[in-house]
């Protein structure tokens, strides 16, 4: 059960109304979690600026991180949203489940990236040295490392907002992660 309402357009500031209008044009709807940010005058715009900022990670790589982090943080909203986005980026259901488990047997670079994202999240930034070494050995750069850490923080914010507010999931619900060895 939700601990906070999902505000409608007429219930938010004019600044957030403009953002809602832009999201409606871009996505076709305002996701409940984004709408929830609009309880704050500034949080939605600030979050979207962070989320849409330039990064060295490509769209598929970002989804690998988003799925691994959301799984560790047990956020059904973000798992559902990023499962849908990962499918749009060409990942199969099986690959998505692997990425959620922090691995990618189908791609060495994505395997190192998903493992890193999972490890950073599980250890709250006290990342295992071997995981970082494996990340670099797979061909990632220092820039990729920093951008990955920023993305872990970005996704953790949304995970925490949903885990706290429990707003309704408005994406097809992600299946449970079962039988995938991490």
TrEMBL record:
InterPro entries: AhpD-like, AhpD_core, CMD-like. Pfam families: CMD. Coiled coil: none annotated. It comes from the Bacteria. Residues 50-107 form the Carboxymuconolactone decarboxylase-like domain. NCBIfam families: ahpD_dom. This is Carboxymuconolactone decarboxylase family protein. It comes from Flagellimonas abyssi.
